Amino acid sequence: MHAEKQNIGYKAEEKALSFLAERGLKVVERNFRCRFGEIDLIMLEGEVLVFIEVRKRKNRVFGGAAASVSPAKQQRLVRTAKFYLLGCAHIPVCRFDVVAFDGTECQWLKNVIEVH
């Protein structure tokens, strides 16, 4: 079951990557991991560094894919992004997006996480 979920997640990330690349974003890194967590995709949209969480659900029962990015998950993403930025020579303008797949429907939610 774990391998099946990983495969579903990988396919969703591939679809998200293609979807975003078609809209002009350029990949910087995939599956960035550190002790704080993982960021699925890190991409550039112009000069903006975009940290992207990809979510996949069969349908919108229980709120759907976008709703599954809990406040705790958001905070892990922020900590992971801050760690990533430690390795940057200069800190670019950043934002956090979610690409949510509910069944075959794709939603791109921009700038969804508040950083404090």
Automatic annotation (TrEMBL):
CDD domains noted in UniProt: PoNe_Nuclease (cd20736)
One Pfam family it belongs to: UPF0102
Source taxon at top rank: Bacteria
Gene3D superfamilies recorded: 3.40.1350.10
InterPro entries: Restrct_endonuc-II-like (IPR011335), tRNA_endonuc-like_dom_sf (IPR011856), UPF0102_YraN-like (IPR003509)
Similarity annotation: Belongs to the UPF0102 family.
NCBIfam families in the cross-refs: PRK12497.1-3 (NF009150), YraN family protein (TIGR00252)
Name of the protein described by the UniProt record: UPF0102 protein NB645_10250
